[in-house]
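ligand=adenosine-5'-triphosphate
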Amino acid sequence: MAEKTVLIVDADAASRNFLIKALQQKGCRALEASLGREGLISAWRDRPDLILVEPQLDDLQGEELLRKLRSDARTASTPVIALSRDQTPSRRASCLEAGCNEFFRKTSADIPALLDAIDLWLASKPTETPPELEQTAPFTPKKSGGKLIAFLSAKGGTGVSSLCANIANSLFASQPKAKVAALDFVLPIGSIASIVGYDGKMNIASLANMSAELLNEAFFRENLPSPPAWKFNLVAGSPDPESASVLRVDRIAHIIQMLQAAHDFVFIDVGRSLSQIILPIIQQADLTVMVVSPDMGTVRLSRVVWQYLQSKGLTSDHVYPILNRVVGFEGISKAEVESALGLQIQTTLPHLGGNMLMANSQRVPFASKFPGDTACMILKEAAGQIITLSEQIRAGVKQGVQNGSWI
Ligand SMILES: Nc1ncnc2c1ncn2[C@@H]1O[C@H](COP(=O)(O)OP(=O)(O)OP(=O)(O)O)[C@@H](O)[C@H]1O
Ligand SMILES: [Mg+2]
């Protein structure tokens, strides 16, 4: 990734120095301004990838600065994070209203979430297309094939891969005849093969190396491995970073289309990545399952991802948020998660102690290992809802992507 530039606008030298150090550790170039007007000049001249603003400035109010940034084409879509000593709800509301993308309090408790948000905004900001992706075949939507269900999270370890495999498996309960495929598209290394106990050589990288003529609908119907304990066909993920680094991304659209042609449902684990390869998949998925865990850090990051997806045309009809690993009355409530995320949680799965890990390490579905656990019912219900919603979207009952803006 090319070096990213972050502009810090803050009257307080100690805060600026703290942020400069943190940004340098991330390999970013930091620019600084102690006054609002200096900040504006630098923003328009240097075109940073991200701007951090303390709204209490000596010459301009932060809100005025934000409005000026937003009304100028050079910075209209530059991500801006407010980092404020003033922690009042009215300040937060006025900053968000004036155009900042994120608002953090200037407290040590908020620093880890701020640093995560900086990473995410820098990673998700649309940048120039890298030359190696320019020849990528456009991803033509295949609305007549199987439903495409993407599984994504904003933070690692929230349970995306476990839920992708287990919900794909639970589809069988309501549609025993449905043909289901699971594709692990987590780079640089996938994990579903290990969850379902597949040790074979076929994976997304090896398939992408095959000639396009061989990769036809019949191939995907007849040749994919189907791990014995599981009720779906598998396209395993990249087995190692080396394979991922040479993965032929220009073949991915074709592979997904053929998977859709050969199956009724195609589940894709995209992990926590929102690269230029992943975004089109999410934009064209019938439904995106967003897995969130009940801690404010993850919820805030999920909100950033959701706002980004909205800016790319996705509507809430297309998103199915799951709150995973909920522990009794500890932590934040579902209502708090919904309000911070800006989306309604559709399914809540409790923290299953070591049981999910145990099922994963024995390479069997959770429902086979712990058939009496209420979580099995929740997984089945989630699978049923995902079927219904994706069918409604396909039938046009739900709106889906705004302006029909498939890319
Ligand atoms: N509801 C749950 N209760 C308890 N443990 C869970 C739950 N969901 C997932 N886990 C466990 O959390 C760990 C991470 O799960 P998983 O690998 O599915 O997450 P992930 O989001 O795909 O992670 P990664 O970012 O590494 O791809 C695993 O050990 C899994 O068994
Ligand atoms: Mg995973």
